[in-house]
Amino acid sequence: GYYGQFGGAYIPELLYANVEDLRKQYLQMIETPDFQKEFSSLLKDYVGRPTPLYYAARLSERFKTNIYLKREDLNHTGAHKVNNTIGQILLAKRLGKKRIIAETGAGQHGVATATVCALMGLECIVYMGAVDIKRQAPNVLRMQMLGAKVIPAGSGSQTLKDATNEAIRDWINNPEDTFYIIGSVVGPHPYPDMVARFQSVISEEIKKQLKEKTGSENPDRVIACVGGGSNAAGAFYHYLDKEEVKLYAVEAAGKGIDSGYSAATSVLGSEGIIHGSKTLLMQTEDGQVVEPHSISAGLDYPGIGPLHAFLIKTGRAKVVTIEDQEALQASLLLSRLEGIIPALESAHAIAALEKIEFSSQETVVVNLSGRGDKDLDTYMNYLKEYGNDHHTS
Ligand SMILES: *Cc1c(COP(=O)(O)O)cnc(C)c1O
Fold first, then answer.
1. Closest Cα to atom 2, ligand 1: which residue?
2. Which domains can be identified in the chain, with CATH numbers?
3. Is 242 known to be catalytic?
4. Based on CB atoms within 10 Å of each CB, which residue in 51, 63, 70, 387 is the most buried?
């Protein structure tokens, strides 16, 4: 479970049997024809895959290159996260688990988990920081509507890391009947590998779709935002060993890298252990996790998946950092040029187009991880402050 020096499974002894059981069985289970059949049929008929690969003509004109958007925003529930929760719920079912737990920050992973629990008729408990419950009321209602129980995590900063601690505590107390659905390529092995495999459908489709549209499976560049890194892992997956395809991990720089309000883990982070794996994380000199900041709740995470720590350290992926303001501008740009309102997370990937020099011949794929409905409040506040025609061409 290592990517270079990153990864592994640093877990309390009480969870060892559970994680080890999953590690021994997950690959075998995923590869059975029965699993593959159910997974791909749900992705097709329930999630709505394949998602389109859309040639964004006006955006391309603006950046003087050829830009394709991978439309993960068109998935059921509005983002890529459901690809993973479908995969994990099918595993949980096959392992005979009756109870599903999850942690959520913005509520997106909680909604995706509550959705698949309703689909499979399994009990669903979602831990969420008390502060986040207040900030993300619509997603709390969605989870409740879907039949999930949302439990507030009241310790610490009452945000994602506290919710994660509560979920792990629950798992330790209920190791027999409970499956822990993790929402990104983070956590102890085998989670990062497992989640990357479930999300790899994104680049599997990109290859086919690009071949049809351009005659070649390979783009020149793939750009994706990175919170924990699952949508990026999915978009990069089938290109990892194609050195000619340049990969860009876009991180949230918040109010600025050196402002103290940032979530640019791969720039500011150092090696340490978070949520059961060794990776890069933002920490103080004595190893306390630093509270991250990003205007986008999905990128507001103090760590980064071990795969991405490895890709970045080895130079395979380049990092682009985007500040809150730049992401807001990019969201308006995409809305006005293409009629697509992106999630704030995905707007970071769009903003990265401003920071890369392209030639006119290139093929560039941006993974549009989610749609912007959940962010309309933030967008409207921004428009009020800066006026309506900001930064469009
Ligand atoms: C959660 C989320 C992200 C960040 O998570 P990753 O695991 O890094 O992909 C990005 N975009 C959207 C729309 C999200 O909901």
1. 298
2. 16-43+81-188 (3.40.50.1100), 48-78+195-386 (3.40.50.1100)
3. no
4. 70
The SS3 call for residue 288 is coil
Q: How far is CA 380 from CA 86, 191, 328, 367, in A?
A: 33, 37, 10, 24
CA of 132 to the centre of ligand 1 (A): 16
The full DSSP string for 182-250 is --SS-SSTTHHHHHHHHHTHHHHHHHHHHHHHHS-S--SEEEEE-SSSHHHHHHHGGGTT-TTSEEEEE
- Among residues 87, 5, 104, the alpha carbon closest in space to that of 46 is found at 87
Residue 370, strand partner residues: 79
Q: Which of 51, 73, 81, 248 to mutate to test the pocket of ligand 1 (most atoms within 8 A of CB)?
A: 81
**Residue of 22, 341, 45 lying closest to 181 (CA atoms):** 22
Sign, CA dihedral 40-185-3-226, equals: positive
Q: How far is the CA of 226 from the centre of ligand 1 (A)?
A: 7
Nearest CA to ligand 1 atom 14: 298
pLDDT at position 389: 57
Active-site residue flag, 374: no
Sorting pLDDT into bands at 50, 70 and 90, what band is 106? confident
10's tokens: 């640093």
What pLDDT is stored for residue 91 in this prediction? 98
- 277-291 residue pLDDT tens: 999 999 999 998 898
The string of pLDDT tens digits covering residues 217-242 is 999 999 999 999 999 999 999 999 99
pLDDT tens track for 146-202: 999 999 998 888 888 889 999 999 999 998 899 999 999 999 999 999 999 999 999
Q: Is 389 exposed, middle or buried (0-12, 13-18, 19+ CB in 10 A)?
A: exposed
Query: Which of 185, 206, 204 minimizes the C-alpha distance to 194?
Result: 185
| Residue 38 in tokens | 């159910």
Taking the complete model, does pTM exceed 0.85, yes or no? yes
Mean pLDDT of 9-35: 96
